[in-house]
Amino acid sequence: LWYKHMLFRTAQGLGITRSGQHADIEDLETGEVQRCNLRRGIESLVSGDRVLWREGLESMAGISGVVEAVEPRTSMLTRPDYYDGLKPVAANIDQMVIVSSVLPELSLNIIDRYLVAAETLNIAPLLVLNKVDLLEADDRAMYE
To answer: Could you tell me which residue ranges the EngC GTPase domain spans (predicted)?
Structure first.
């Protein structure tokens, strides 16, 4: 539990990961990643969220601060969720790189799904095919 007298400066941060009521936040000023508690009322924090967080005067059990607020999102990648309809996966995406291996077998279905997600977010994706050097010349020509 964080009280005001236990907190230092307010800073802008970027959500990296979330696990339960904790999140790893990159301090946009220093570049350091801090493990933070989430204030009550912050229900949805995902990778890419811009946040306001307060640093603790000292670390408590590996927790270095508290996320006070999540700033409005410019975009949001979602996935279907049985209970909640759509569940946010990532926020504020401005680039998508789709990386797939051609061996053992290229999955066109998953690439199509990512291309649809990129189209929905109105961003131009970059497709990277890995392990093309392991293909025979005829097969390589097909992928090129």
So the answer is: 91-144
Global confidence as pTM:
0.78
Q: Which range has the worst mean pLDDT, 28-32, 120-124, 129-133? A: 129-133
Domains in the chain: ranges and CATH: 4-70 (2.40.50.140), 95-143 (no CATH)
Tokens read off for 92: 């504020």
Contact 107, 125 (CB under 8 A): no
- Phi first, then psi, for residue 135 (nearest 5°) are -85, 155
- CA atoms 89, 50, 93, 86: torsion sign: positive
- CB distance 140 to 132 below 8 Å: yes
Task: Report d(CA 57, CA 7) in Å as an integer.
Answer: 5
pLDDT band at residue 24 using 50, 70 and 90 as cut-offs = very high
- Cβ distance 120 to 89 under 8 Å? no
